[in-house]
Amino acid sequence: MGRRGDCRLYRYRKGMVKQMTRDHSTVSEMARLRLISAGDASRHPNRHQLTRALGADPFTRPDTFRDKTTPGDSYLICSDGLWSEVTPKDVEDGLSDNDITIGFEELIGKVLDAGAHDNVTGVLFRIIWCLFIL
Hints:
Blueprint: E1 8-13, E2 16-19, H1 26-32, H2 38-43, E3 74-78, H3 80-83, H4 88-96, H5 100-113, E4 122-126
Antiparallel strand pairs: 1-2, 1-3, 3-4
Helix pairs in contact: 4-5
């Protein structure tokens, strides 16, 4: 995981899940340009055709961003083998569980129940405390 352009980072904060990364695929670009709907994008036959991936070109620049963390934030970084097999509600449930180990196991279970059509990779973690240095 990490070399491909089809991994995502999600953040759960105060009851809301946010996808923190952009997908780098032809279909995502088409959806951003409103050439196809989000529903069409999820079923498009070329949805896994990448436009950018780390390691594919020595001059590829990864997307970077800064974001403040707060105690209680949960994060999930995962491959498309995970996020493409579950609903956004499933991701929210996994990230919001009081015990993130159980939440992650339930999320992986849903992927396996759906057939796990691709490799499934993910890391789920929660921020317990933050130290801010000014």
